Amino acid sequence: MKRTLTITLLLVALQISAQEIASLNVxxxxxxxxxxxxxxxxxxxxxxxxxxxxxxxxxxxxKQVPVPCQLxxxxxxxxxxxxxxxxxxxxxxxxxxxxxEGNPASTPVRLHKKHQSLNLSYQDHPVLDxxxxxxxxxxxxxxxxxxxxxxxxxxSPDGQVLSRIQAPDHYHHxxxxxxxxxxxxxxxxxxxxxxxxxxxxxxxxxFLSEIEGPVYSGFKALQEHIDFGGRGEDxxxxxxxxxxxAWNVGKGDAWLIDYTTTLNTPLDSGIMLxxxxxxxxxxxxxxxxxxxxxxxVLTSEGKDRLTADGSKAKWCIxxxxxxxxxxxxxxxxxxxxxxxxxxxxxxxxxVDQNRGRGDMYFEFCPIRHKDWKLDEGRDYTLKYRLLxxxxxxxxxxxxxxxxxxxxxxxxxxxxxxx
Length: 418
Prior knowledge:
The protein has 418 residues and is mainly β.
């Protein structure tokens, strides 16, 4: 009781000494929300004062409950926070933004560089590794299968490894990555995924940023898509900025991860990404423990493992048996409305894949049905969000998470004392 009273008095003292900057009203709109990242543009608010840091509170009844918040600066300045828990359709929630002296909020999601990879973890539980050093294939396998710039392992909250690399049936599969396959440069085919062809590869070039904060932590990496077949030395055909961030949804029983890829070609002729059943913004080779008898698929359009391939969807749940306490683990893959050919076509391996075992491969494939020409001097961005979970996610929950990604709540800045 004494500890609770002390914390309450400290919060009251902090708020008395703080300066209110704005009052925010967040409206769910005509859909429900679950653990939804929300941002508000602060360009019209003086947030650059030297004294004090920003602090956010949610107004609940006659109380003000602290909410972690984080500034993202650049061409525009945005304040991020999590609209925690479930927010019902039509509901509004009010927040106040203050400036005050004080220590920065804690950072639950941390970055840690290991020998070959950058690890993201949540309160000492591993979330994912990004492989920035070159990964070589097993001994006796052609060295052409080496590459860098991919995510593996991806763990579930209960510690289950959900990704796989260098499977003996496909040594060129690398966890979670961008598998651009059939492309053409000046009429010449270049395959950046089927590495055994020796036509191209993808290489990590460097980290552009590494960020830790109370709301999200992550990194931006430059990846080079290398063309081996041009005249003279190997050349960069596409520069890719991969932006990965893990959100602090504050529960530890699900990971929420954004995977944003931006492509830019330095070639004056551009590059053609040919229509093909493989080739996309995000590909996923699942754990070898999953097969046709214990792994399922459900899309936003109601398609299953037998019918999803080649269809289009806003989101897709891929899940299977695990030794987690809940007995199942999986990933909800979400595509954004701004993505090319949205709702995006998918590649889902048929159940007779790999001599009838039915291993799992999933991909959002924006070039499945039509070519995509990338011109010099332009950026092309694809946005994805992943919910990594143990147990089960219903179609209704998946839709709420997707709405939070593609159709975020409306934030109204009311100004101080509103």
